[in-house]
Design brief:
Pfam families: DinB. InterPro entries: DinB, DinB/YfiT-like. This protein has one domain: Four Helix Bundle (Hemerythrin (Met), subunit A) (Up-down Bundle), CATH 1.20.120.450. 62% of the residues lie in helices and 6% in strands. The protein is built from 5 helices and 2 strands; from the N terminus they run H-H-H-E-E-H-H. With 169 residues, it is mostly helical. The chain has a two-stranded antiparallel ribbon with strand order 1-2.
């Protein structure tokens, strides 16, 4: 049962990220150069953090020296990378055993400071970090009169709810 809330959080993150990228993709032309750069910086930071912690979960090094890319990627490259990374997290969480969530992982922050977090804490951080920065991206969109995608827990539950089974008896 411990896996369920993590699976749900990661699925919600994937759903919300896809919605945000869809809205941005449809409205990128409405943003000026400065707004586009700001939005791409926020999106890149979100993705970089996801990638960094993915590496920590896998016990392998990453190439990031900060929580952002050295060169700002194009929008479509970010969208593709986020989709692949979100899919990885969903598969990863489904493959964990209940005891895996409490396993401690030692790693080094991009600042060089050593750290230790449990797998569950890393997953929680990745999901909450994304939620926070989707709000930043949404604020940029609001300034241009664009309604961001729905991304709350209740929106997710409503969008993914299974219709009740029909009782034909």
């Amino acid at each position: 049962m411990i896996r369920q809330p993590y699976c749900q959080l990661v699925e919600m993150k994937r759903w919300a990220d896809r919605g945000l990228y869809e809205v941005i993709g449809e409205n990128l032309g409405r943003l000026d150069k400065q707004e586009t750069a700001l939005l791409l910086q926020v999106l890149d930071h979100m993705h970089a953090v996801d990638q960094i912690f993915r590496s920590h979960l896998q016990g392998r090094p990453h190439s990031y020296r900060a929580a952002q890319s050295e060169t700002l990627p194009e929008f479509q490259a970010l969208a593709d990378g986020v989709r692949e990374t979100d899919d990885w997290y969903a598969d990863y969480v489904r493959g964990l055993s209940p005891g895996d969530f409490d396993e401690s992982i030692d790693f080094v922050f991009t600042s060089g400071k050593p750290a230790r977090m449990r797998r569950g804490e890393i997953l929680l951080h990745v999901c909450l970090h994304g939620e926070y920065h989707r709000g930043n991206a949404g604020a940029v969109l609001y300034l241009k009169g664009v309604t961001p995608s729905r991304d709350s827990v209740t929106d997710f539950l409503e969008d993914t709810a299974q219709p009740p089974a029909l009782n034909l008896a």
